[in-house]
Amino acid sequence: MKDHEIYSGLITTVPFVLRLDGRSFHHFSRDQGFEKPYDPQFFKAMAQTTASLLSDSGLAPSFAYTFSDEISLYIATPVFDCRVEKLVSVAAGFASSAFTLHAGADSPLSFDCRIVPLAEFQLPKYLAWRQAEAWRNHMNGYAHKLLTDTGLSATVAQRKLDGMKASELHELAFSFGVNLSETPAWQRRGTAVYRTLVERDGYNPMTKETVRVLRRTITIDEDLPLFKTPEGAAWLAERIAVPLADVRS
């Protein structure tokens, strides 16, 4: 029956992105009574899940980006022999269990996963695309909440928003006294999770002396640049370039 495993030999090239999306998270958010359009507890659980994917999943991403219920993992070196089935199943399974734990859910939650092969120079463009989606979600989320607060049903509110341009959504929110440009940066631009090098005190058992050593640590960054700008691309390149070898975690 081994020959029936027809997808087991499917592999991807490197680098690539694993993009995870929460499945039916709107039901979970409703049942948990999370705040709309953004809930700090939900955001924290997503950020912690993303950090866990960097540190403990075995996927060894170089960089991760998250907004709403979506996570993108950038993987620059071969892992799991680049087997598509292994990559998507491990990523989705790990993210599902990690988020269920971090969110304190009473029942299992799940993510789906897809692979996006790309060249390294395409990463800023990919992230700019996802960041633009984060901004669109941000505008829609606030506008929808403001309309439903007036007594409109969720369905009617969405119908009013369908087809609206970004400038119109911005003006609608402003008419309710909300300046979307002044909301928290993590809501507007998403959140990055990456490794940084920090210098700390260590101990040399051979010389019995205290020494300064480099350690890798996971950083959750809520204040991102615009990836579509040259400055944003340079910011990204600097953080992906953090060496992984010969440095203890």
Can you walk me through this structure?
InterPro entries: Thg1_C_dom, tRNAHis_GuaTrfase_cat, tRNAHis_GuaTrfase_Thg1, tRNAHis_GuaTrfase_Thg1_sf. The chain is an alpha+beta fold. The chain folds into 2 domains: 1-140 and 184-249, tRNA(His) guanylyltransferase (Thg1) (Alpha-Beta Plaits, 2-Layer Sandwich), CATH 3.30.70; 141-183, no CATH class. It has 8 helices and 6 strands; from the N terminus they run E-H-H-E-E-H-E-H-H-H-H-E-E-H. Strands 4-1-3-2-5-6 form a 6-stranded antiparallel β-sheet, with helices on both faces. The model is unreliable at 245-249 (pLDDT under 50).
CATH architecture of the largest domain: 2-Layer Sandwich
The side-by-side strand order for the widest beta sheet comes to 4-1-3-2-5-6
CATH class wording of the largest domain: Alpha Beta
- The helix-strand sequence is EHHEEHEHHHHEEH
Helical coverage, percent range: 40-55%
Total DSSP helices: 8
Kindly provide the radius of gyration, computed on alpha-carbon positions and rounded to a whole number of angstroms. Answer: 21 Å
Cofactor: Mg(2+)
InterPro entries: Thg1_C_dom, tRNAHis_GuaTrfase_cat, tRNAHis_GuaTrfase_Thg1, tRNAHis_GuaTrfase_Thg1_sf
EC number: 2.7.7.79
GO molecular function, one term: GTP binding
